[in-house]
Structures
1.
Amino acid sequence: MLQWEHWAFGETVLTIPSLATHFTMTPSIDHIKIQEVPMTNQAILFDLDGTLLPMDNDRFTQGYFHLLAQAVAPYGYEEESLVSALWKGVGAMVKNQGLRPNCQVFWETFSQILGPQVHDHIPAFDAFYAGEFQKAQSFTGPNPAAAQAVALARSKAERVILATNPLFPPAGVRTRLSWVGLQPEDFDWVTDYENSRACKPNPAYYLEILHQLHLEPSRCLMVGNDVQEDVEAAQAAGLETFLVTDCLINRGKLPDCAQGDFAALLQFLEAM
């Protein structure tokens, strides 16, 4: 049984599916290798930022935080202190060990830094994600194939899950999905900071999804662009993985898993 601090999901019986051969591409488009990977047909999980939605994380975050600072400036927030508090709130969510929803952890940390009046302004922050946050699309790239990938996954698996790092409120997730022609209703489960109690790269994030949806990890595929958050953490929870290399984030060695650009992902899904 997989167990993590503060987590007890009960005993899971793993079913080992049959093997199939798929094309697997490395980040070099002229290097193709064949790899044996387990068939995974119970659920396919997609990361959002850098996977379905192309972006440079640093550029996006800098631009998005600036827009947020402008939106809440009338309430007395100064940009430098606001951004500092945002990062500390994000850091607290990443360290969350499952005792409380991420949103509670964030607002507690945020208000401790900026003052208790923050709680009165939560509606203004929520309104930002449904409104002015749309401007942050300019810090991302297009991906006309995103909806195709989700539709392919729908035809290959019982469930399709948006496994985006749950650092955003639901409105922030909905807005970002809209930039690639998708909506939360296209998925069977969408993680956000209200319904999640852990974050990537903690494997407990994936274990929570598996537990909530009664999924067998060996029959699930995680698709993402971040080696540590989307591949290594998912593998630690028992999932199969596909690394999308268009907006690759890697702090170490490339993992031994199926990988390639988004076009290769479409081929991989089609062959499942």
Note: The radius of gyration is 19 Å.
2.
Amino acid sequence: MIDFPQINPVALELGPLKLHWYGISYLVGIGFGWLYLRHYVRSYFSGWQKNAIDDLVFYCSIGAVLGGRIGYVLFYDLQTFFGDPLLIFAIWKGGMSFHGGVIGVFIAVLFFRFQTNKTIFEVSDFLVPAVPIGLFFGRIANFVNQELWGTPSGVPWAVVFSIPTAGGLPRHPSQLYEAFLEGIVIFSFFNFLIKKRPRTGITTAAFLIFYGIFRFFVEFFRAPDSHIGYINGEWLTMGQLLSLPMLLGGVIIWYLAVIGIKMKQKNKQEK
């Protein structure tokens, strides 16, 4: 059992201005993701100018933040929003939905795609290798914010969060599980995958599949939102439910990409 370290969620306070670790994590994640795309991923994808990468990261950052916040309100906390609509702007308090962020980024990719001669999957394949960087820092921020903690547990690494709503019980540090799986593991896999220069769509499909699987798995160790609880009996959570379309979409995209490869090989043989 480990007591939660005394970490002030406010990193810097200058008069009325407060800089929260949660906000810093977004800036760091976006910054490192931008550098990673500009100076590493770009070398494995042709036709990407640095100014186009800058535009893509800018649009997707806006889409991720707006989509993440709006998605959280719609999927997890609609009643609170009706009571105080201004809370939708209180990002520093936490409450961001990754699934909503995906929708926001998808809209941003569509917007960017219409300004270029690239297809949707050419854009998304280039972008998704950097997403685990943002996920890693975001989950660390969840831990610092003492939110999205896990179910009660007796494992040696269980954490006793100091926030009253955690009940003083040792719990799974599910935020760190997600930081490892969604951040480090997926990032490492993409570092390997992009070197193989897979067919268009495979990289996007791989991200949707791996994220869907990892998120569905970690939800078994993560306490459901108190105002929602379990959706079906004692195991299905909103996070798992929202991960299923991602997983299904990834499988479909992967199948279509593989079929495309086989059709191309068949055409070559016939010629």
Note: Residues 12 and 18 are 6 Å apart (CA to CA).
3.
Amino acid sequence: MAKQQEQVLAGVVDIAHGLSGIPRGRFNRTSLVEMPFLTRDAGAATHALWSLYGSGDLGDEYKGLKVLALHAHNGGLLHTNGKHVETMEDMKGLRIRTPSPPVSEMLTFLGATPQGLPPGEVYENLQRKVIDGTVFPWDPVKSFWLNEVLTDHLDMGAYTVSFFFVMNQAKYDGLPENVRKCIDEASGDALVPKFGDWWDTWDAAGREEAVAAGHTITELSDEERDRWREALKPMIAKYLETMKADGVEDADALYQKFRDKVAEFEAAKPEQ
């Protein structure tokens, strides 16, 4: 998984879908969509990503790639094995698998110890109790059979993670015009708006499986959510400063653009 972008750029594979945060440092501008409590709505985060890619605000992070889509998942949960979590105090010292640098920082500020692992290695590490839990939306909990080795789920909705769906640009350019037309009609603006509803459907199956297994599912209380928001303000400030040092000089302004695009989507979304 960690080399998917590199493999596409090198022409080893023609098309790939993967996490933007693994390995770290490739998509620093994109990573700002993963700031805590930006949104718990996959549609909103996806809209923000695609809008800012289209406006050029993500810079040259996708140079050499034909970007078929960018998207993000619904607000992630904390899933644990034998550890019930409701508060920051409950997080202290827990070894939690993390998908990206921003989420690692978030977990650290909440008192946990982040552990970097590919999704496919989470089951074994939970089973062997090398880690106490993982952060994921519901869908991969089912896809990777994790409900077999989990007992508790905290619906915190504190973060989202971004994904890329890309094609080698030279390969795309070398295709016949009618084939390129088919790809264009099935990707980009035609594809991106579908991810919000898709994630809702995918996540529902994972949650239903956990309920059927008799697991404990806890919603982060409003009071505790406010505590987390306050505790994570320094983390956001620190991350933005780190991004500036890594070349994202307009990190503050870019983060605000992500916030504005999320608000734009959420304001236009019909109430359910």
Note: Strands lie at 15-19, 65-72, 77-80, 95-98, 113-116, 133-136, 152-155, 162-168, 216-219.
4.
Amino acid sequence: MTDLAGKNVVITGAASGIGRLMAQRIAARGARVILWDINLAGLEALAEQLERWGYRAAAYQQCDLSDRGEIQDTARRVIAEQGAVDVLINNAGIVSGKPLLEISDEAIERTFKINTLALFHTTRCFLPGMMEKRAGHIVTVASAGGFIGVPKMTDYSASKFAAVGFDESLRVELKRAGYRAIRTTLVAPYFINTGMFQGVKTRFPFLLPIMEPDDVAGRIVGAVEKNKERLLLPPFVLALFPTRLLPPALFDEVVTFFGINHTMDDFKGRGS
């Protein structure tokens, strides 16, 4: 079990959605939450709320996760002002929700910078401090879309497939190097009922529900406390893994039957 009390916890994408909800829950456990987001007004509002509730003062840093230099500068400030980071939750992510030929080059590159490359940059900044203490926790919020590709999500799914590989390689790398007390957790949720995925739908909500943000946030925090290495939400996502062994044409038919290939048909997102 990981006790979050007294720990320094960095959360990216903390100003809204499950990032905000995780910050509230983790602060309630006695941790100092260090909030990162590009949305400065959202960060300030959340930090003020946490302080009103009587939790430990939350530090916050405006940071554009598509900018490697800004990530590195922000990380240096965090370490200088708050000390070593105990838990890193790589939560920030974006989605285009368009067919491949309708996504601009800039949008594709930004998706990979935020959803994938930022994982490398933040982890490389904070992992040395964890290695020095021989303890820590790195959480990668990926997606069920990192296991199954979906139409209108070529950039998003590809970036999340990469996130899954990042977590798996890092987990084994740390164990082989003798850093077993530096834990990793991969989070792969189905669609979450936030503005980011407004308009998505599901064919079988009893199997693959559009998940509520507060429930997801609570499950992630619980997974960190229990040192779970993988959290798939809902559990039925795990039942889809054997379908990867099927021939591609049959795999496509199974996924279509469950409605997964139609989830993005009415996608609007935050731009609606």
Note: The first helix runs from residue 17 to 28.
